[in-house]
Amino acid sequence: MSKTEDSIQEIIKKAKDGNQIAFSNLLDTFWNEVYGFQIKRTKNENDAEDITIRTFSKAFDKIHSYDDSYEFKTWLITISKNLHVDLIRKRKRNLLNEISSHGDIVKKVLDETPSAEDQLIIEQNLANLLQDIKKLKPHYQKVINLRYFNELSYAEIAKKLNEPLNNVKVKLLRAKKLLSEIIKEK
Questions:
Q1: Which DSSP category does 104 fall into?
Q2: Residue range 54-83: mean pLDDT, rounded
Q3: Exposed, middle or buried, 103 (CB in 10 Å: 0-12/13-18/19+)?
Q4: pLDDT in tens, 91-141
Q5: Rounded-to-integer distance, Cα 16 and Cα 14, Å
Q6: Crossing angle of helices 20-42/72-100, nearest 10°?
Q7: 8 Å CB contact between 166 and 158
Q8: The CATH number of domain 5-99 is 1.10.4030.10
Q9: Topology of the domain covering 113-185
Q10: Which residues contact 81 (CB under 8 A, 6 or more apart)?
Q11: 58 exposed, middle or buried (CB, 10 Å; 0-12, 13-18, 19+)?
Q12: Helix (H) or strand (E) holding 117
């Protein structure tokens, strides 16, 4: 489905006004281009999908800062590229930390299991997270549970819910954003 630049600008204007259908239209229109860009860069489907979702999440959060003198696709690709660079830096930093602590590997192997205190903290955090998830609408709860607790792929979730793949992606994006807001309110 090809949209003219004028109609895309109209959709962006509606998105800036908070119209959820406009956000869905933007996601549908540009998903394949951003995902394709990332799959070429990362050569990893999970990373490409994760970065693409984070790209749209960030773009939708910052939609008011979009300057329409640039193409929207270019703006999305720039966000996507920066998120990928951040991911690479984070992985390099983790790798360097791992290498620098090479002398401590024996200690790490011996002490990988969480202590009783650590286990209690993990359980309390999980209980708090589950309580926060229960504050979401049921369809958002379901998509969060399928993705993060049942560890289903987006395609598997779409099949299970009998919904288009892009709807699942939008729902998950919104669910994560709403959950984030609930957690921040605490």
A1: G
A2: 92
A3: exposed
A4: 888 777 776 665 555 455 555 666 777 777 777 888 888 888 899 899 899
A5: 5
A6: 50
A7: no
A8: no
A9: Arc Repressor Mutant, subunit A (1.10.10)
A10: 37, 41
A11: middle
A12: helix 116-133
